[in-house]
Amino acid sequence: MKILVPVKLAIDSNAKARVKSDESGIDLANVKMSINPFCEIAVEEAVRLREAGKATEIVVVTIGSAKAQDALRTALAIGADRGILVQTDETVEPLAVAKILTKVVEAEQPGLVILGKQAIDDDCNQTGQMLGALLGWPQATFASKLDLSADAAEVTREVDGGHQTLRLTLPAVVTTDLRLNEPRYPSLPNIMKAKKKPIETKAPADYGVDVTPRLRLLKVSEPPARAAGIKVKTAAELVGKLKAAGDL
Q1: pTM for this structure?
Q2: Is 49 exposed, middle or buried (0-12, 13-18, 19+ CB in 10 A)?
Q3: What distance, in Å, lies between the first and last C-alpha atoms of the chain?
Q4: How many whole angstroms separate alpha carbon 22 and alpha carbon 32?
């Protein structure tokens, strides 16, 4: 079985995002970028499935500028076999991403698509659901456990009040949650091998997809500064402060 894993390059989770002075967006100059953590979990799960003998090939795909190759190289160092870069300098919204991935799926014919439930930069949490709908495939989101057989996938997901287990007929789309696994650190030999693994470069036009944004960003602004806290000695004093602030 072939597994397709879409990945995304995002601002590193340890980096501080800065708003542009004109409030037109996030300033990405000199900001550390890395593979989206949820995407990294998806790659790790695909590699584990191959190591268990349940998959034969792992293909990773990303959409973005030439810099997005960094996400592919990280995925290849973890253990993916080859990559596809759909190169564009435009901002690609989730629906356009899902449409491009639909065409990639049609070309690659994977038995399973695993992707992160969301990207930590925009937190849209839409691409997996849209991809499943466009393909007409079964889908399971927020997977915390995944068991794969020859023709079906059993997915456990956390829901309010417990766990829910779904059985999907393959091919299917699965999105990953944080508790699915803990990604490995790529070893130096694997990082060196990843540099020689093939990456195919495409353009959205090659798949006949228009990536023109449907949404218009009005403004990006910093959250309001948080006021300093105060200490009180008694409950009565606390109640008095809350009443003065209009919170009671």
Answers
A1: 0.85
A2: buried
A3: 60
A4: 22
Q: What is the pLDDT of residues 60-80, one digit of tens each?
A: 999 999 999 999 999 999 999
The angle formed by the CA atoms of residues 63, 64 and 65, to the nearest 5 degrees, is 145
What tens digit of pLDDT does each residue of 196-241 get? 999 999 999 999 999 988 888 888 888 888 878 888 899 999 998 8
Backbone angles phi, psi at 224, to 5 degrees: -60, 145
In this structure, how many other beta carbons lie within 10 angstroms of the beta carbon of residue 14?
7
Kindly report the three-state secondary structure assignment for every residue of 121-145: CCCCCCHHHHHHHHHCCCEEEEEEE
The CA distance from 206 to 214, in Å, is 20
Q: Helix, strand, coil shares of the chain as percentages rounded to 5?
A: 30, 30, 40
For the chain, domains (ranges, CATH) are: 2-244 (3.40.50.620)
3-class state of residue 43 by DSSP: helix
CA distance 106 to 57: 16
* Tokens, residue 237: 């004093």
Separation of alpha carbons 86 and 22, rounded Å: 30
The secondary structure of residue 67, as a DSSP letter, is: G
